[in-house]
Design goal:
Layout lengths: L1 H22 L2 E6 L4 E6 L3 E8 L2 E8 L2 E6 H30 L3 H13 L1 H6 L2 E9 L4 H17 L4 E3 L6 E8 L1 H9 L1
Parallel strand pairs: 6-7
Antiparallel strand pairs: 1-2, 1-8, 2-3, 3-4, 4-5, 6-8
């Protein structure tokens, strides 16, 4: 009886954790204005890639622990490790070819399913914030697009601005829950 209660409680905890993971939001932020890309699960973890002062910066956050690197420093460390591991990769390549032969069917099935439901998957993304600042480098085309963009800003939620200064900027904040993607694939 006690063993049954323990197994049921473990299964219940696993079910609750799976439900939390499926309903947690996954946020993607892209900004060409700040030269920043971030992917995060807001309460738990996140990662970012940014361009600051002529160098790429890569970082991540996991609960209360943060870590950030500058890309030139990280790339020099990686290149040293690659030089040491080239001989090991040649030995392992033959065994990997044998394992990949069985995976081709699943890959084709998944690609077919994704291609069939691609529009539903794209519609499952929610746009939290969207700001587009556009210049086509053609004054006449900009003049034609300007009234359309003003009407879009008045009647729509997401602004598209036309400028004559030569700036092209986009800021995008997307939110996705894994359960919506799973539903779109299985639908």
């Amino acid at each position: 009886m006690i063993l049954l209660l323990i197994t049921l409680s473990i299964l219940l905890i696993l079910f609750v954790l799976l439900a939390l993971i499926l309903w947690m939001p996954l946020c993607l932020q892209i900004s060409s204005k700040r030269q920043y890309v971030a992917l995060s699960i807001p309460p738990l973890a996140g990662g970012h890639l940014s361009w600051e002062g002529g160098e790429f910066s890569l970082g991540y956050r996991l609960l209360f622990w943060r870590r950030a690197w500058n890309m030139p420093v990280l790339l020099t460390k990686i290149s040293k490790k690659e030089a040491e591991s080239t001989s090991l990769e040649e030995k392992e390549s033959s065994s990997k070819r044998k394992r990949k032969a069985g995976k081709k069917r699943w890959g084709k099935f998944l690609l077919r399913k994704l291609r069939k439901n691609a529009w539903d998957i794209l519609r499952s993304f929610k746009i939290r914030y969207w700001n587009v600042n556009l210049d086509t480098d053609d004054f006449i085309l900009n003049a034609y697009l300007y009234p359309v963009s003003v009407a879009w800003c008045i009647w729509g939620r997401h602004p598209i601005r036309i400028n004559f200064d030569g700036k092209q900027e986009i800021e995008l904040d997307l939110v996705q829950r894994p359960i919506r993607v799973l539903y779109a694939i299985l639908k």
